[in-house]
Structure formats: structure tokens, C-alpha cells
Amino acid sequence: MSQGYDLIGDVHGCGATLSTLLEKLGYEQRAGVYRHPTRKAVFLGDLIDRGPRIRLAVQIARRMVDEGEAYIVMGNHEHHALAYTHPAPKGSERRWLREHSPRHNRIIADTLYQYRDHTNEWEDTLAWFKTLPLFLEFDDFRVVHACWDAALIEALKKRSPNACLTDELLEESADSSTEAFAIVDRLTRGPSIALPEGVAIHSGDGFTRKSFRAHFWAANPKRWGDVVFQPDNLPDHLETRPLSEAEREGLGYYDAEQRALFIGHYWCEGIPALPARNIACLDYSAVKYGRLVAYRFDGERELSADRFVWVDVHREESSRI
Fold this sequence. Notes:
Number of helices: 10
Structural class: alpha/beta
Radius of gyration: 19 Å
Order of helices and strands: EHEEEHEHHHEEHHHEEEEHHEEEEE
CATH architecture of the largest domain: 4-Layer Sandwich
CATH topology of the largest domain: Purple Acid Phosphatase, chain A, domain 2
Helix content: 25-40%
Strand content: 15-25%
CATH superfamily of the largest domain: Metallo-dependent phosphatases
Shape: globular
CATH class of the largest domain: Alpha Beta
Largest sheet: 6 strands, mixed
């Protein structure tokens, strides 16, 4: 039988829900690894942070990847963990690549708490994160955590043929003036547009944002409302604000004739739907009692919403382990 793939969105520590989803997809656990006779899973990154069973989520995905039963790409939360725990270069005024600020501490707090009694496992997990590619490209589909940017992907290939972060790239990615920062930021966080001075969005995840996440598949966007892609609404008066030429160019464009693209990252809500005929976003806010979503891909040229499979994340997943 031909190979099928099950693309799985941001797990964010909902390990028990991940087990339920895999079983719903027909995977069975054998020798401690979820396996399917004719399919492989593809994880879209962000296994960690926020949820109550982070170690379980990592263990499930890692065992599948190590056994050749799954693939995975790096998410912005895995990159955050690496930068947060990596010493700054000698001569730097900082101790760590990513400053241990209240905001950064909060992002990783649940992960550090759950690994607090498993320090060797945490160190080993960080080493594994460094082996995760920033993108995957198959014959008939592509995978990236947040945004497919062809130019930056080509730049990454030249510097790292396996698309993974070397220590040099990781250290460089902490400097916003560098090519490595541009690559990691675009591929794992996607495009964003700065809000006007004095305007902020108080996000559903508890953070105050001074920019909004924007998508990259509108053929001829004219207004901010044409490209906003996040659960938090723009203030009404900004929906009709015209996009500047620089903002429009900064979005990039993934046209409808390119191969299928699977992304996570964007905190969608409700019943899973396709934002474009060749793009599926699989992040449905699992850790906020949303859904953990998969897409069953079998090589179709035009994606179909009928191929989404999901399980609701129940509040039991919020209990501490």
C-alpha cells in the first residue's frame, strides 16, 4: 500500500490527548512506540510549554521519530528552550542567549517545572531539539512550523544542508540583525505587523502584544484585516487600515499553485477549516481546551476539510502530574 501521512499540530504538553489522537488515527503502541502499518506521523513542532504532560508529549513524539514512525520540525517553543538554556558567547553582557526576563521565564516555566526532577532527561531532550529540522519537503507536500519562505529556506540549506541549527546558527539567531535570526524568526514565528504606537492586543494566552500575526497567502491584500491570522481580533478601526508597500512585501506570498503546505503556530479556533486550498493550519489551541488536530494526507493536489481528524482537549488534561 502507498505511504500516507498524518500531520499533527501543536501539542503544547497535552500528552494524554496526543495518545488519544494517535489511537483515533489507528496507531497502536508496540514496544513503547506508536506505529501504523501504512502511515507515518509528522509533528509540526511546539511539543513543549503550557500543558500538563510535557514530558509525555516529548517521549511519544521522540520515540516515534527515533524509530522511523514519524517526522518532526522545530517550533518556536523548541527554539526558545534552546536559546534560553544556551550560554551567551564569551564577552557578551548576557549570561544566556535569550534573556531570562519575566516574559521568557513565563513561556518555559511549565516545562522546567515538569522536568525539575529529571535533569538528565531535560539535557538529553535539549540535545534532541538541536536535531530537529526547521522545515521538511516531500514530493507532494511541505511542512514548516509557521511560514514557508523560499528565499530564507534556500539560505538555510546553504548553511545547514540538514536544515538543523548548528551552535553557530543558534548563537547568531539571538541577534536580530543577522540572517540566522531572519531565518528562524520567519520559519518558526511567521510574518507579523507592528501595531501603532500606544496600541496593544491583550491576547488570550495572557500576553500583551504590540504586533499581530499575519498570513502569507493573500494574492492581493489591501488592508490589515485581509492578512490578520490569529484568534485575537484587531481593534475595529485597524481592520481597514491600508497595508503599506513595505508591509505587503514583508508578508511574502505562497501561491495556490505550489504544493500542499502544513503549518501550525497560529492558534486557530472552532471547527478546523482550510485557510487556502493548498494550506492547512493545524494549531487549534489545544492547551486552551481547544482541539488537537491532524490532517490525513494521501497525496491529493487539493486539500479537503473532510480529512481533518481531531480530539477535544478535556479539562482533565489540565491536572498537574
